[in-house]
Design brief:
alpha+beta
Amino acid sequence: MVTIERKGGDRTMDDLRPAGADRPLKASAPQRTSAPPPLPYEGVWRFSAPAVDASVPQARHAVRDLLRRQGVPVAEDVAHGLLVIVSELVTNAVRHAAVLSPTLAVEVAVGAEWVRVSVEDDHPYRPTALEADHGRTGGRGLLLVSEITREAGGVCDVEHTARGGKVIWAALPLTATGVR
């Protein structure tokens, strides 16, 4: 069983919002410089799992249940794409990083208009998306993640961690805005 912990403080994803997607400012007598209070579903949750095959469906179900429990207003097609992304990223960590990283971490951050999932491991190798090779049955997980993210109008990247590992993340708008 996977336990998801809410991290301290809420995180919004203002830096990931497309231009013009800001929330309207509310008029008030004194001008405030602080951000508006977070919406009820906004927050950051993180859980760890062993780098084993059984963690793939557990992570996917944990993210699905979290989105439902928090009442995140995510479009059905975006939620489906997000769960495929979680499955692919956890599968990659299990298959390619477990030798140097016996555990992995999954983080879900929900802002007013975005949801971001990331998978972190301690393996230093920074993977790249492979081109489609119809003769191979695997090895295209990051290509799939990139395509799902692009179609939804989101962004994804791979970054190094301070400990020398990596975090692979994808942020999608709660409602699909991309090209179909």
